[in-house]
Each structure stands twice: as C-alpha cells, then as structure tokens.
Amino acid sequence: MDRITKKYPINDTSIEVFNPFGGAISIVVPYGADEGIIEVNVKNGVESPFFSLKSFYETPDFNQELAKPGPWAVFETDNVMFTIPSHSIIPGQYDLMQAMLDWDTALQGVNSIMAR
Asked: If 107 and its partner were Cys, which of 54, 79, 81, 98 is the partner (CB 3.0–4.6 Å)?
C-alpha cells in the first residue's frame, strides 16, 4: 500500500481531522516556534501504543503501552520515528527498548556519514 498522509492546517481553536485507515495524529511544530506550551484535546480518538526514547521523554512502561487498542504503534527516538501495525508486536518476543536503541544508534551513524 502506498504511503497515505493528510495534512490539516491548525488555523482555528478547533479543527476536525480523520483518517479512514486509522493511524497517528502528529502535530508538527515549526523549528524555532516560540508560542509556549499549548493544550491539545482529541475527541473520539483511539489511543495507540506509543514507545518513546527521546531525550526529553521516555515511555515509562513499555508493557502497559501494548494494552492500548489502537491499530498502529508508534516508535520514536531522537533519530528515527516509525509506525507499525500493533498486531505485529508479540509481547516478550523482542526487547523493544533494545531494538529502539539499536535503531537509534544505526541512524546516528547514518546521520554522521551524511553530515546531518
């Protein structure tokens, strides 16, 4: 299946978004934006597993995330972000944290080689 992305400008205090296939809602903040902290509320959304090892946020309990009902799981580090079907994650089959650390290390190398 092709990549499907839909962008919605946030130009009001309330907007409606949808995706018939499900998937994450990402809010892209422009580099250098200085609007302070904002509050975002999502209605009728389905919470998905979210695994983060970013420098400013680390998922506290990976096993608890697996219980969330969303069809897609989001993985992110400081160097990579990807989404996979939740049903493909089998609890205990892989060390998810170590896999993310390995991906992050690999992408650090790629970024270094590419001078990014």
From this structure: 79
